Structure prediction request, 247 residues.
Amino acid sequence: MDTPRHVAIIMDGNGRWAQMRNRPRTYGHLAGARAAKKIITSAATAGLKNLTLFAFSTENWSRPETEVRFLMRLLAHQILREQKNLMKNNIRFRTIGELSRMPAPVRDIVEQTVAMTAGNNGLNLVFALSYGGRQEIIRAARELAEKVSAGELKVENIDESLFANQLESSFLPDPDLIIRTSGEERLSNFFLWQAAYSEILVFNKFWPEFTSDDFKYAMNIFSQRERRFGRVSVAAPLTPAHTVATL
Ligand code: IPE
Ligand code: IPE
Ligand code: MG
Prediction:
């Protein structure tokens, strides 16, 4: 089976899941945290190498202050509570995004967990926190511009691989598969550069409803996709009737 090297998940629909049950959005976030825990375990058990979870976007700062505060507390609480399990399951925890924008208590717990798990070599678990694809690209562009103006880099040496190496996510391969829940068919500023050739799979269920079986199903669907990367299919060659000679 063709297994992805990197799966990224846009965990969407917590609020609507809760609202459908006449509960506050925060209730949905709690249920979402439980779903994330299950999927992390499934990914580690399945032997996946890289899993990125989009937990909070740059644009999510524009939500009501009470919701943002709740999400920050929940993140800190969840990461702290999972430290033991991360160590037990040999999971290396990392983040991408503007960590400096996160409240100090969250930042401290994140940094402590990153340091604690730095020697683990099982699943790389990446939380995208205060992450935005455009912001990541702009930061990389600025850093490259600075190198050029300092005379450390020649403009003509800027190519895809140099640019990708300047991105904060450069330690990750591009996501082979991006999963989004809640039926929304958009990237919402996630992995804009990296998603160039990602397979995308949208589930018509809210994130709190996403199960380990759904994750397995996604892996299975991925293995059946034919990725062409702009080339022609090897599986279905052109028949003579379709060659240029008959045009
Ligand atoms: C995903 O669920 C969690 C975050 C974006 C932090 P939402 O909070 O976006 O829930 P919906 O999409 O409004 O239902
Ligand atoms: C994307 O979900 C961000 C995360 C899942 C963290 P949003 O709920 O913020 O996306 P939009 O607003 O529906 O595009
Ligand atoms: Mg949403």
